[in-house]
Amino acid sequence: MGKKFGYSIRRLDDCQNIADFRELAKRRLPYPVFHYIDGAADDEITKDRNTAAFEDVDLVPDVLVGADKLDPSITIMGRKSALPLMLSPTALQRLFHWQGERAVAATAEKFGLWFGISSLSSVSIEEIGAKYAGPKMLQYYYHKDRGLNAALVERAKAANFDAITLTVDTIVSGNRERCKRTGFQTPPRITPASFLSYATHPAWALNFLFREKFDLPNLSTHVAAGSNASISIQDYFNTMLDPSMDWKAAEWLRDEWGGKFCLKGVMSVGDAKRAADMGCDAIMVSNHGGRQLDGGRAPFDQLEEIVQAVGDRIEVICDGGVRRGSHVLKALATGAKAASGGRLYLYALAAAGQAGVERAIGLLDAEIRRDMQLMGVSRLDQLTPDHLRRR
What we know:
By secondary structure, the chain is an alpha/beta fold. The protein has a single domain (12-390), classed as Aldolase class I (TIM Barrel, Alpha-Beta Barrel), CATH 3.20.20.70. It has helices spanning 18-28, 31-38, 45-55, 100-111, 125-131, 146-158, 177-182, 195-199, 202-210, 233-240, 247-257, 269-277, 299-310, 325-334, 343-375; strands at 57-59, 74-76, 79-81, 85-87, 115-118, 136-140, 163-167, 260-266, 282-285, 315-319, 338-341, 388-390. Strands 4-11-10-9-8-7-6-5 form an eight-stranded parallel beta sheet. Helix 5 links the parallel strand 5 (115-118) and strand 6 (136-140). It is globular, with a radius of gyration of 20 Å. The model has no long low-confidence stretch (mean pLDDT 94).
């Protein structure tokens, strides 16, 4: 947005929207790290569509109804959230800023929001559970290593996590061409081609080299890829995750966990119905930020038919592409219980750590509240499809 209007985004105070945080993150990260956050699969058509889909639907406000007593809160998966916005789980966050998941968890707690950490998080399940009281989920990857699978469940139980969210769209890795071009691996492997970019971002490099050693502590007790062995995310998915994962495996995990259970990556009505039939508490309508199947539907495009099919039986979360408070309200008017996203806070984390995440969520908080008033609603359950028109 800053570039669109000719503004220069150089400081945190310059950031007025998520696009501004993206521009600042691009300035502050070595290019292989930035393109890992920013990139997606193949031609990145689906990634771009995830946000563009919201622009094809217009809001129709009501007036003279009074909207002076706002309540933007929801209850989802049994926990109250101050906003209908969830911070989706994402991996490797201490690569983007040394504060990593701690910054995101602290911000979620401050604003009273649901957040998630990945199985590939760079801060442990135990630390997040002990230090942050807000509602939290573990994004669960189903590994070939059955001992690791069982350990993740037990650690989440012991840390009092509120939900496990099984990612179901990573049977094989998407073709992440930007990562292939930049040689991105975790931990980063500096090549002759990328050396200059790392060298010209000394703040990032010094933090990475001299602060807490990078680790994936939820994995490092079981697999080398959790410690200092450098591996691409594509290779991790293709070698470590179990391509035989099926509905039976999902049912095993649901039973083993015994608590609130969500599937992330549901995109078809048939799969949504099966998730409801097996007793899932929620589904995240998601395409992994466009990082898996390019050419797939955007979550918001697919949301209406999924809500109509199962919205009275299971909580539906619209995950991906969210950049504005108005996007959140459009998802809720369509029938979603909440909206969620990862890049919306990852750009801010990379730009300025916890201060950046707090500013980004603060801006979205203000947008949601202001847009509710402009829509003429005091409560989120007053948003209906009557407030929407497709172009």
